[in-house]
Design brief:
Strand content: under 5%
Order of helices and strands: HH
Helix content: over 70%
Number of strands: 0
Low-confidence stretches: none
Length: 71
């Protein structure tokens, strides 16, 4: 179970980092008038919503498993 929680935590962390980078790039483009692009993730519609949902999908089961193993 420890391996499963580690994998779920890693996937949740990856989604958080991608979500943060998406908004950091949008902010940098707006403030500094740069032309930064997401070449590999640009064509996915509603990517922010998908990443937010995936954070919860990965983190909630991980926390449930951790709580169950403590008991």
């Amino acid at each position: 179970m420890k391996v499963l929680t580690t994998i779920l935590d890693f996937l949740a962390g990856t989604c958080v980092v991608l979500l943060f980078l998406k908004f950091a790039i949008l902010t940098a483009n707006g403030i500094f008038d740069w032309n930064l692009r997401w070449y590999f993730l640009e064509d996915i519609p509603y990517m922010a919503i998908i990443l937010l949902v995936l954070v919860f999908v990965f983190s909630i089961p991980s926390e449930m498993i951790k709580e169950k193993s403590k008991k």
